[in-house]
Design brief:
Largest interface: A-B, 69 and 64 residues
Helix content of chain B: over 70%
Radius of gyration of chain A: 22 Å
Strand content of chain B: under 5%
Strand content of chain A: under 5%
Shape of chain B: flat
Low-confidence stretches of chain B: none
Number of helices of chain B: 5
Number of helices of chain A: 22
Radius of gyration of chain B: 24 Å
Mean pLDDT of chain B: 82
Strand order of the largest sheet of chain A: 1-2
Largest sheet of chain B: none
Distance between the termini of chain B: 51 Å
Mean pLDDT of chain A: 81
Oligomer: heterodimer
Low-confidence stretches of chain A: none
Chain lengths: 504, 161
């Protein structure tokens, strides 16, 4: 064990890996701070480059972006009342009020510290839970695995944006996209419609970049075109002017104030870690639930919504505490529980590693190095955030009109570069059209990606189960573990449906 | 009809048409039959889910319309907003097709410069001419450095570079 730790730490703390982590955190905070652009989009864009990096370096870069993006979202939320990411929506409630009251520095520092504490808690839970859970998963057969896939799809579909029917529909579309190509059992072409380029199936990179990055920049670009952002930018400039004459020396977060936020931070860390481990529940729900609970247990609940530092701490800690635990289903069962985990799952596949219980056994060094990187990235986030905090709020002022074209071009050329494949570019644009359509019609995107990634595994488990049961569908509910998964899915969906209703 | 209603009806149309078309394709298409586990078992399940979800959303819409008739629920903006964004998105994605065709025929760097300049001119409100000329140059330089020099992608021979 000691040898393993030494080898993994040598990998994780290689100077190049550390450099990539720092670069990732900087990129993540920068993109997260710009409303509309997210860390997920940056991770999707960088997937083609994973081919050209050593696994530890690639993981360092992606982890840095993810963690930086989580905190970056709170910068725009506090500075301008515009959440940079959906997870930062709860932070904006008190964060923006605190800023209007002349406490932007206190608010940003509270967000930074609570984000790092929540994130680290979640990472530690991942490190200590993923390995034993993966050992349990090794005893699963096809019936249990199919129940687990169905559990994840149902949960992510139901909880993504509180729209169960649309979530299920979009997950079904993801599964259908995964079915394109040759049937692994009969060898016949399916859903290729006579196009030979599709017989090998759709590649991960163009589908993920198209769904996440292309659709996002196209929708942002379309909004810009309609000059909607003019109003937003005017508003941002107006808000920035409010800070003229502001004295930062009077706005330092004291130790006493920090201590007063710790209870809320711990509540956020616990709630976020739990919610993050459930497929589909996501950062936004974690942040709002943490905020609600922290308010209930606060000595000054009346201050919530009026610039309370406890409010900021609970929301930001809850949001960031999903970061580590969201990987638990991916590492233990090979099921990405969120869009970010799906992107990391894709990165593992591109690097030749299969997410799931065998991931830890087959790539122990890399995974333990990743654990070290997760913790180290939090430190980088803390240090870089502390040093650069005064400059970050200006990042949100960068005109998207210059960024969007560059991102768009990088997505197209990057996808071509991954396999030198023209077909991949057409798939990318098709996925972009699909992503834009789904965004415009307010479908959640995470279930589609989950459906696409676990579709082949779910089909394999279903067909093996059917063979075992002689074609009888009842075989799927003959295992107690499988029944447990179905019951848990229904119970959790009901629980969170009521929680979401209470939130509204 | 308000925006939410139009959006949800379009969603239902998408779900039902995809589900029904898929089932028709399974019924009449050329699918390989295998004992116990035919090729279409998973797609068929997905199509059923699509149809069930479409009916579910339609039912929710009916309930919502009834609530509105009884005076509950807020009105939203007109449906034209959705059409305008859809149209603008279509034009951007159409531009991407032209861009990639240009990359294959004209050359990566020239196409990147031209397309980037065009997008900035269209998307950046009040962009100065110097920005429209210089920023694409920087982006083209980054693309050249990253993709040609560092990664070494191979493209078919083109007219320019």
């Amino acid at each position: 064990m000691l040898d393993l730790v030494i080898e993994a730490s040598a990998l994780a703390f290689h100077p190049y890996v550390l450099m990539y982590v720092m670069l990732g955190v900087l990129l993540g905070i920068t993109l997260g701070a710009i409303p509309g652009l997210s860390g997920d989009m940056a991770i999707a864009l960088l997937l083609p480059f994973v081919f050209f990096l050593e696994p530890a370096m690639a993981m360092g870069l992606l982890v840095g972006i993810y963690k930086g993006g989580l905190f970056g979202g709170s910068i725009a939320a506090i500075s301008f009342g515009v959440p940079g990411t959906p997870g930062a929506a709860a932070t904006s409630i008190d964060g923006y009020q605190a800023k209007l009251k002349g406490k932007p520095s206190k608010a940003l520092h509270t967000a930074l510290y609570s984000s790092v504490i929540g994130d680290t808690t979640s990472d530690l839970v991942l490190i200590f839970i993923a390995v034993p859970l993966a050992a349990v998963a090794l005893s699963f057969g096809p019936i249990e695995f199919f129940a687990l896939y169905a559990f994840s799809l149902m949960l992510i579909a139901a909880l993504s944006q509180g729209m169960v029917a649309k979530g299920l529909a979009v997950a079904a579309i993801g599964v259908l996209l995964a079915m394109i190509g040759r049937d692994p059992i009969t060898g016949s072409a399916r859903l290729t419609f006579g196009m030979p380029g599709l017989s090998g199936g759709l590649s991960l990179i163009p589908v993920l970049i198209g769904i996440f990055a292309i659709s996002e920049v196209v929708v942002q670009g379309a909004k810009l075109w309609r000059r909607k952002v003019d109003d937003l930018m005017d508003d941002v400039a107006e808000q920035a002017s409010l800070l003229q004459g502001y004295d930062i020396r009077k706005d330092q977060l004291s130790w006493k104030e920090f201590k007063a936020t710790l209870k809320a931070t711990y509540i956020g860390a616990a709630v976020g870690t739990f919610i993050g481990a459930l497929p589909g529940a996501g950062q936004s729900l974690a942040a709002f639930m943490s905020y609600g609970l922290a308010q209930r247990f606060s000595k000054t609940p009346e201050e919530f919504g009026k610039g309370s530092l406890e409010g900021i701490a609970s929301a930001e800690s809850g949001n960031s505490a999903t970061a580590g635990s969201t990987f638990i289903p991916l590492f233990a069962f090979g099921i990405p529980g969120s869009a970010t985990a799906a992107l990391f799952g894709a990165a593992f596949i591109l690097m030749g590693m299969t997410p799931g219980p065998s991931l830890l056994n087959d790539n122990t060094e890399i995974i333990y190095a990743l654990f070290f990187t997760l913790i180290f990235a939090n430190l980088v986030n803390l240090v870089l955030g502390k040093i650069l905090l005064p400059y970050y709020s200006r990042i949100a002022m960068i005109q998207p009109g210059y960024l969007i074209p560059a991102v768009f071009i990088l997505a197209i050329v990057g996808t071509y570069a991954a396999n030198n494949s023209v077909v991949d570019v057409w798939v990318l644009l098709f996925a972009g059209v699909l992503g834009v359509t789904l965004r415009l019609l307010k479908f959640p995107l995470a279930p589609l990606v989950l459906g696409f990634i676990i579709g082949p595994g779910a089909e394999r488990a279903l067909r093996q189960s059917m063979i075992m049961g002689g074609g009888d569908w009842w075989v799927l509910v003959k295992s107690p573990i499988a029944i447990g998964f179905y019951v848990a899915a229904v119970a959790l969906i009901l629980l969170f449906t009521f929680a979401l209703r209470a939130k509204k | 009809m308000n925006r939410t209603m139009v959006r949800e009806l379009l969603s239902v149309a998408l779900m039902l048409s995809l589900g029904v078309a898929g089932l028709v394709h399974i019924q009449y298409g050329n699918w390989r039959v295998a004992p116990l586990v035919p090729s279409y078992i998973m797609p068929q399940t997905a199509y059923y889910f699509l149809i069930a979800s479409g009916i579910w959303v339609l039912a929710m819409l009916g309930l919502e319309a009834r609530r509105r008739r009884q005076g509950h629920g807020a009105d939203e903006g007109p449906a034209q907003d959705l059409v305008a964004i859809g149209l603008a998105s279509g034009l951007m994605l159409g531009g991407a097709v032209v861009y990639f065709w240009m990359v294959l025929n004209l050359g990566l760097i020239v196409s990147t410069y031209l397309y980037n300049a065009l997008l900035i001119a269209v998307l950046a409100p009040g962009a100065r001419t110097i920005s429209i000329l210089v920023v694409p140059l920087l982006v083209a330089a980054v693309v050249w450095l990253l993709f040609i020099q560092m990664i070494g992608i191979t493209l078919p021979p083109s007219l320019l570079f």
